[in-house]
Amino acid sequence: IPSIVTADGPSGVRIEPYQGRWWYATAFPAPVMLAASWNPEVVEVVGRAMGEEAREYGVDILLAPGVNIHRHPLCGRNFEYYSEDPLLSGVIGAAFVKGVQSAGVGATPKHFAANEQEVNRFVVDTIVSERALREIYLKPFEIIVREAKPWAIMGAYNKLNGKYCTQNEWLLTKVLREEWGFNGIAMTDWFAGD
C-alpha cells in the first residue's frame, strides 16, 4: 500500500503549519449550510472546488464529509454534519463525494456509525435497534456508498450495541462490504481501535 496524504476538510482543506510555514485554504460554507440549500448540484460544485484545492496541496484523501445525524442539540459538531434528515444527508453527502472525487481526490464519509454526540465519544455505547439504525443512522452512508462510491469510510470512536465501530464485524463486513458492496478503505478515526 503506498503512502497517502490525508487532510481534514468538512468545511475546507485543513492544513496545519509545518516547519514554520503557514498554509492557507478556502473556508467554505459549513456543511449544515450547504444542506440547507437543498441543492445537490451546488454541493457537487463545492465538493469539486475542495477536491481541486486538496489536490493542489498534495492531499490524496479528504476526511469529509461528516454525515452523522443531528439527533442532539448539544452535539458539538452539528455544524459539520448536514441534517437531522437521513435522506437529505445522504443525497447532499453523495453530491459532495462525487464533486471531491471528480478532482482526483478521495472522499471519506464519517463517522461510521451512530456517532451523534461529543460527550464521552471515545467510550459511549450507542444502543439502537436495527430498524432505527438502518432507517436513520446508516441511511446517509448507504446512499453515499451506493450512489457516489467513496474511496474510504472512517469508522467512529463509539461502540455500537456493545462493540466498537472500528472492530464491529457486522457493521464493517456484513453491512458495509457485503450488503452495500463497498470496496474502498475502511479506516479508523485517529487513535480509535486497538
Task: Summarize this structure briefly.
This protein has 194 residues and is an alpha/beta fold. Helix content is 36%, strand content 12%. It contains 6 helices and 9 strands; from the N terminus they run βααβαβββααβββαβ.
Distance linking N and C termini: 21 Å
Compute the number of strand runs.
9
Order of helices and strands: EHHEHEEEHHEEEHE
Q: Overall pLDDT, averaged?
A: 93
Number of helices: 6
| Shape assignment | globular
Strand content: 5-15%
In the sheet with the most strands, the strands line up as: 1-2-3
Sheet with the most strands? 3 strands, parallel
Would you kindly provide a written description of the structure presented here, covering whatever features stand out?
- With 194 residues, the chain is an alpha/beta fold.
- 36% of the residues lie in helices and 12% in strands.
- The chain has helices spanning 31-36, 40-56, 86-102, 130-137, 139-148, 169-179, and strands at residues 6-8, 61-63, 106-107, 110-112, 125-126, 152-155, 159-160, 163-164, 185-187.
- It has a three-stranded parallel β-sheet. It has a three-stranded parallel β-sheet with strand order 4-6-9, with no helix packed on it. A three-stranded mixed β-sheet has the order 5-7-8, with no helix packed on it.
- A hairpin with a 2-residue loop joins strand 7 and strand 8.
- It is globular and about 45 Å long.
